[in-house]
């Protein structure tokens, strides 16, 4: 394989953008493990009492990820996130007003490998805040991450909360509105389909978010992130292959998927874990009004789910030509 090295005369700003993305990759892939390792060192070392104090804090604070988290405007506004968004770049596209007097449930599609668009738009300021004043976004992620010492404090500071039913209910139960739950509907399973050009969404059997929207009267908003699947390449893993079978079994055991992905490096473009510089356009669709129903029937859930799929498909079709999707390609629901 011929290695393509980056030119020496690259502008400093682009170098800084690459470093910003590198630290995000480290945070996403290794920071949790690093924090757990540091905690073990504290326990086994001379500073064991600090670990004991933190365990006490963890016990007292255990429910916070399900109670709105603990966001930090300072962390969300770090300059590093500006360079992170500019690297791709990441754009948030508004198609309709979202009245801050209501609560919303935003369905984010597709998952991609590392959901860069969801993080850049909903966990850093000011993209969402500028376009939708009066609304506070909460990105729901797998509960397992909030069991990692120290790491949990970092992700909560960015506005991430648990994806548990209790957590979603807390966000959507805000009297007076102004809250937006952001849920990556396809989940970890969908990341295994995140190949360049893929338009397959795992959504046909995912109806829990519909039930939550009905129970709380939260308006549903489809969100499609064009370019999300173009950031990395994956080792071929078609359904039925031995690799896909292993990945799916591990996903069921651990709760998260392990896509074997690669892209470019820091100083060369041929291999590495740094995502490609591909633009991400996250398009926020029009809200689907939802009337509160504390005990929705299966038929009512299915009906709203079908309407959501219809609106999501319409959103995609209306914008696909703008963002380089061929006219003959359409979403595939599984």
From TrEMBL:
InterPro entries, sorted: DAGAT (IPR007130)
GO biological process assignments: diacylglycerol biosynthetic process; glycerol metabolic process; triglyceride biosynthetic process
Keyword DNA-binding: no
Subcellular location: Endoplasmic reticulum membrane
Record-stated family: Belongs to the diacylglycerol acyltransferase family.
EC number: 2.3.1.-
GO terms for MF: 2-acylglycerol O-acyltransferase activity; diacylglycerol O-acyltransferase activity
Highest taxon above the source species: Eukaryota
Keywords annotated in UniProt: Acyltransferase, Endoplasmic reticulum, Glycerol metabolism, Glycoprotein, Lipid biosynthesis, Lipid metabolism, Membrane, Transferase, Transmembrane, Transmembrane helix
The protein's name in its UniProt record: Acyltransferase
Membrane topology summary: Multi-pass membrane protein
Gene Ontology cellular-component annotations: endoplasmic reticulum membrane
Statement: the UniProt record of this protein carries the keyword Transferase: yes
CDD domains reported in the protein's UniProt record: LPLAT_MGAT-like
UniProt pathway annotation: Glycerolipid metabolism; triacylglycerol biosynthesis; Lipid metabolism
Principal EC category: transferase
Transmembrane segments: 21-41, 47-67
Organism: Hirundo rustica rustica
Catalytic activity: a 1-acyl-sn-glycerol + an acyl-CoA = a 1,3-diacyl-sn-glycerol + CoA; a 2-acylglycerol + an acyl-CoA = a 1,2-diacylglycerol + CoA; a 3-acyl-sn-glycerol + an acyl-CoA = a 1,3-diacyl-sn-glycerol + CoA; a 1-acylglycerol + an acyl-CoA = a 1,2-diacylglycerol + CoA
Family annotation (Pfam families): DAGAT
């Amino acid at each position: 394989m011929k290695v393509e090295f980056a030119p020496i005369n690259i502008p400093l700003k682009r170098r800084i953008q690459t470093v910003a993305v590198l630290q995000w990759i480290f945070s996403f892939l290794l920071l949790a493990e690093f924090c757990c390792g540091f905690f073990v060192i504290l326990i086994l070392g001379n500073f064991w009492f600090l670990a004991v104090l933190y365990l006490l804090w963890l016990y007292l604070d255990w429910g916070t990820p399900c109670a709105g988290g603990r966001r930090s405007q300072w962390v969300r506004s770090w300059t590093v996130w500006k360079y992170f968004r500019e690297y791709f770049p990441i754009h948030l596209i508004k198609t309709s007003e979202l009245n801050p007097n209501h609560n919303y449930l935003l369905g984010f599609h597709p998952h991609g490998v590392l959901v860069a668009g969801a993080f850049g738009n909903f966990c850093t300021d000011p993209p969402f805040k500028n376009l939708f004043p009066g609304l506070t976004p909460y990105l729901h992620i797998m509960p397992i991450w909030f069991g990692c010492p120290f790491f949990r404090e970092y992700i909560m500071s960015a506005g991430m909360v648990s994806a548990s039913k209790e957590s979603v209910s807390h966000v959507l139960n805000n009297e007076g509105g102004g809250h937006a739950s952001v849920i990556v509907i396809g989940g970890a399973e969908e990341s295994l389909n995140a190949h360049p050009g893929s338009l397959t969404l795992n959504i046909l059997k995912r109806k829990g978010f519909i039930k939550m929207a009905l129970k709380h009267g939260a308006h549903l908003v489809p969100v499609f992130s064009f370019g999300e699947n173009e950031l990395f390449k994956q080792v071929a893993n078609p359904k039925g292959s031995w690799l896909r079978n292993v990945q799916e079994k591990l996903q069921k055991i651990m709760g998260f998927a392990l896509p074997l992905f690669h892209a470019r490096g820091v100083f060369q473009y041929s291999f590495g874990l740094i995502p490609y510089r591909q633009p991400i356009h996250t398009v926020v669709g029009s809200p689907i009004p939802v009337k509160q129903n504390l005990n929705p029937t299966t038929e009512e859930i299915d009906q709203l789910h079908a309407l959501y799929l219809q609106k999501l498909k319409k959103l995609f079709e209306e914008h696909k030509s703008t963002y380089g999707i061929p006219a003959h390609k359409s979403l595939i629901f599984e």
